[in-house]
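As described in the Methods, two query proteins were run sequentially through the folding procedure within a single session, without resetting any intermediate state between them. The first query and its resulting structure tokens are shown here.
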Amino acid sequence: MRLFTIVLLSICSLTTFAQDYNIKTFGAKADDKTLNTVAIQKAIDQCSKTGGRVIIPEGTFLSGTLYLKDNVNLHLMAGALLKGSTQFKDYPDNAVPGSSKTNHAFLYAFNVNRIAITGQGTINGNGQSAEFQLGDDSGPKGNGGRPVLVLMKGCKYVDVMDVRLENSAFWMQNYVDCENLHVKGITVYNHVNFNNDGIDIDSKNVLIEDCIIDSDDDALCLKSHDADRTCENVTIRNCVISSNCNGIKFGTASLGGFRNINISNVRIHNAPVDRIRHWLENMKFIGQAKTVISGIAIENVDGGITDNINISNIYMQDVQTPIFIKLGNRGSTLKPAAKNPGHLRNVTISNVTAESYSKMTSHITGLPGYDVENVQLNNIRINSMGTGTKDDAQIKLPENVTTYPENRMFGYIIPAGGLFARHVTGLVVQNCSWTTRAKDERPVVILDDVKQSSLTLLRAEGFDDVKDLIKRVN
């Protein structure tokens, strides 16, 4: 009882001194012209002393980098629009190691606690600015220091709720080495530049729920940038995501790996706009103009350990490849290449309905001597475009040990029409069906160097020969 009283008094104390700080009081002007960085930062600094909310009222406020501080809730009222500067000079390099790709950001937090971004307003990164149009980050100019809209590193007890985030110059959100992160009810729209991810998570004890994410690049992306730290204890549920790249993705950065990840009740479909990708023009055998690369992509390619992944109740349409699982050893550019590819094991994917538009069907692949371990596919329903030929069925896929992992890393055709698995130990496939919209002459399932497998209650329609669903190699 005494402990309860102490806790209650602590809460009451925080509540008593919490205050609202309207940025207009500190001189901010809602004219979409004045650079309000200094005024808004003053409000944040003052709010941090007592705890409370920094109020962004109705109107359009322009600013450069803002540094979030302890005990501050940046709260956007309905009709509020907080816009990032269009110029690089307003986004200083914060020189914090391990943030990945860029340390420039519009909203930045480093080693601060009990912070929040909330409200019914909008934060716009102005990522369409001519200064930020530098091409893909793998190009000759790199990312050029393009700012992330939200970058947090080493923060604890973080809430991001209800706001709309749009038009970042780079990734929309990047949470690195944070703990106790809750993202709920936000709307993301990110289609004005290259590398426009929806949300990137390299943290632990994370809950993401009830979000709408619409991005040109990977929509919902888990990352692991530190070999001594895993991205772990993450729950993602009840989200709608759309992308011109991957829907749900683990990696590519996977130095530490991923552990205890639970993803459920997610709808995946193509993005409404495609200004950059144009897969129908730039890839072979694509059956629809706007498509998601892979609905679910699990990539462990930098020596990390990925373990205990549970994904369920996923509905996806407009995808090229429904499920892509890869254990590799790409020779990471983030640090010296790992001596071995680590482990990718204990993955369960259940209750998936998918509609696909390519010849790159679902595939699970390890490496010679390094198997993907213990994968279960339960209650999977995939309707594909078919069109596979007998020649397609004879294709021998290269190992491509160090190739960047993507559904097309082996080419634009997978020799199996439903599922290809190679270098896998412990594969369970049960109660799964594959149908095609056009005739397909490939085997439904190909198992190449697969040990300890159990495949039961399989069905197929639209294939040339479904008497023997499974072809075994080696």
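Immediately afterward, the second query was submitted; its sequence and tokens are:
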Amino acid sequence: MKPERTNRPRFAPAAWTVLALAMLASGCASYQGIEPQSTLRTPESLGLGKAAGTVASGLAAEAAPVNAEWWHAFGDAGLDRLIAQALKDSPSLKVAQARIARARAAVEAAHAAELPQVSGELDLQRQRYTENGLFPPPIAGSMRNSATLQANGSWELDFFGKHRQALDAALGTTRAAEADADAARVLLASNIARAYIQLARLHDQLQVAERTLAQRQASHGLVRDRFNAGLDTALELRQSEGSLPEARQQIEAVAEQIELTRHAIAALVADPQAAVEAKPLAALKPVPVAGPLPADLLGRRADVAAARWRVEAATHDIRSAKADFYPNINIAGFIGLSSLGVGKLLEPGSLQWGVGPAIHLPIFDAGRLRAGLRGKTADLDIAIETYNSTVIDAVKDAADQLASLRSIARQQKEEADALSSAEAAYDIALQRYRAGLGTYLNVLTAESSVLQQRRLSVDLAGRALDAQVQLMRALGGGWQPDARTAQLESNESSKKEQP
């Protein structure tokens, strides 16, 4: 009698032999010579290390972080309400959240690639079998039904880390999207605060313009009385009349800017019907700001963190692309029922199954893999240089705002003295005119100087508050990195300190 066949698979030794040969032959495709050309800028190279040197306007030093809700320091309930509404309803923030959701979906897809895949199929078919084919009579030349009910499974064994690196790249992209959303929140809050300060500046400018009109109306009344008394000529009367339309035009121009600024704030808070009250600049408290740049400036900015996570994602993309140069090993199998004739599908004899490895080895692909790796390497260079540009801009941004605040403070001191002198000169010119010792042209000249100084005073006060807002944003707007981002920066620093 013939020995009874068993169902034990006999492919295992041969499979591992093929795998070993495939591993040896994998040198046919090589990624040698393809390396990134860019390097990350360090905080020390920007003057932000613990032993930092001079950076534009001051020394880098340890400094307290900005409060996450820094706008409360201005002491204005209206501003607080507008920013809270914007952070809740802004379409731009909802777009950022949607991007995070999309990135998280990519993480789920990358994680699924690491796990076994199972699918099922049911195939029912009516077929005429050829008379000159594989099947003999009575099947040949007949019309018959066939059926297959089967489950198929496969599992790609990630020996070389392709899917692991793809998952890490997707995680990096997700964290970059999360940091982008945080940066968008900071930017939105700062834009609303700046627009609110602009509205307050215009409110004060309107008061200056209205005060100027009232002053000119009083002067015109004086000139008219003097003209009626024969003490002034028609020239002085026409000069005083001509100054009134100009003052009214300035009031209208400022009122237009107030209305446009209200519209801008309403758009930022995503409420076209939002009631935005114009308040004077004096209603906003100045925010105390730190003198030097903080040594950990880059770690406080969400936009820098986002750029750094994109570098990390691009690094993992390269490692995943390198894994394509190695054999792709799959374990595939199936189990199910198949029969010629639907009525026999569920009989025990219809059972079929199979399992075995599948190995794919890149030997010659006309340079496709190397081209793909070069593309990923270029993406990494782009991400690194984008990061470098971001950190340079971050340092410049913070240094610029500190320099502006110092300069504005000095300008305000000088301007206060200039305004006092201009008002004194105007009073003297007006008194001389009333006494008949000067012309009305002298009064107009002195008045123009006072008007210019008053406008400059309001502008400098508005610029000071605006620069404070921009400095809060430049210092990160109160954003703090999570543990993963802090660990990422710590790992990078450790690599640089190694000999």
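The first strand starts at residue 54 and ends at 55. We note this only descriptively and draw no conclusion about the first query from it.
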